């Protein structure tokens, strides 16, 4: 996924292409610019004008999920495997608790059920693997991974949540596994809210609303971008 983040994504893509050549597999890159007509850097410049009433990570997350599902479907995939690890999952869980997003807690697990013919089910092979173990594996295997962080993480709630969870883990080893266990218990216990899927009236992609969130954000960004300064 090429979001268009200068000083970050080009290094990640270069390393990915190098690894793909080494192990003999092809890669398929989807860019925000091609799909939405705007890079994340350009979107952030627009958001900054409005005082970040919408956070960069919110835009990136919506665009990324949209792009991944569409690309997976167009490639004929029956499952979409993502690289979310244990740390990613518990960070999102804590953020959902803070925001009282019960829907996000009960719907996000190690795998998703099919939610319509245009939605590709997702699986998360690294769901129970801590971030440190993933890093250790890449070092042992000699996989070259650029140690660069997305510059927009500082605008996200994930940033302080991640640091807090790491501090708790340092004080109480095993805490991250326990947080994930609570997440799994809630996900299994709480019934998911009913959600009727339909097709976006603009782009035709699956959504739970008449207009999908990606099209709403795209319209917002371009309307702000074209408004008088």
TrEMBL record:
GO biological process: one example: tRNA wobble position uridine thiolation
SUPFAM superfamilies for the chain: Adenine nucleotide alpha hydrolases-like (SSF52402)
Lineage: Archaea, Thermoproteota, Thermoprotei, Thermofilales, Thermofilaceae
Cellular component terms (Gene Ontology): cytosolic tRNA wobble base thiouridylase complex
Regions crossing the membrane: none
Keyword Transferase tagged: yes
One Gene Ontology term of the molecular function aspect: tRNA binding
Superkingdom of source: Archaea
InterPro entries per UniProt: Ncs6/Tuc1/Ctu1 (IPR000541), Rossmann-like_a/b/a_fold (IPR014729), tRNA_thiolation_TtcA_Ctu1 (IPR035107)
PANTHER family: ATPASES OF THE PP SUPERFAMILY-RELATED, CYTOPLASMIC TRNA 2-THIOLATION PROTEIN 1
UniProt keyword annotations, A-Z: Transferase
Protein name: TIGR00269 family protein
């Amino acid at each position: 996924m090429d979001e268009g983040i200068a000083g970050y994504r080009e290094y990640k893509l270069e390393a990915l292409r190098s690894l793909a050549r080494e192990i003999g597999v092809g890669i398929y890159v989807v860019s925000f610019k091609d799909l939405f007509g705007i890079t994340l850097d350009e979107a952030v410049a627009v958001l900054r004008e409005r005082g970040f009433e919408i956070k960069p990570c919110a835009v990136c997350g919506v665009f990324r999920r949209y792009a991944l599902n569409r690309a997976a479907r167009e490639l004929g995939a029956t499952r979409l495997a993502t690289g979310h690890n244990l740390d990613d999952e518990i960070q999102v869980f804590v953020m959902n608790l803070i925001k009282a997003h019960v829907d996000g807690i009960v719907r996000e697990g190690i795998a998703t059920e099919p939610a319509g013919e245009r939605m590709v089910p997702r699986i998360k092979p690294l769901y129970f693997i801590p971030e440190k173990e993933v890093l250790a594996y890449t070092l042992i295997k000699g996989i070259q991974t650029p140690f660069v962080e997305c510059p927009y993480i500082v605008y996200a709630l994930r940033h302080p949540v991640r640091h807090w969870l790491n501090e708790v883990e340092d004080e109480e080893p095993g805490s991250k596994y326990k947080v994930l266990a609570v997440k799994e218990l809630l996900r299994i216990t709480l019934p998911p809210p009913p959600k009727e899927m339909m097709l976006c009236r603009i782009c035709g992609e699956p959504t739970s609303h008449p207009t999908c969130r990606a099209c709403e954000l795209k319209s917002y960004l371009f309307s702000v971008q074209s408004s008088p300064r």
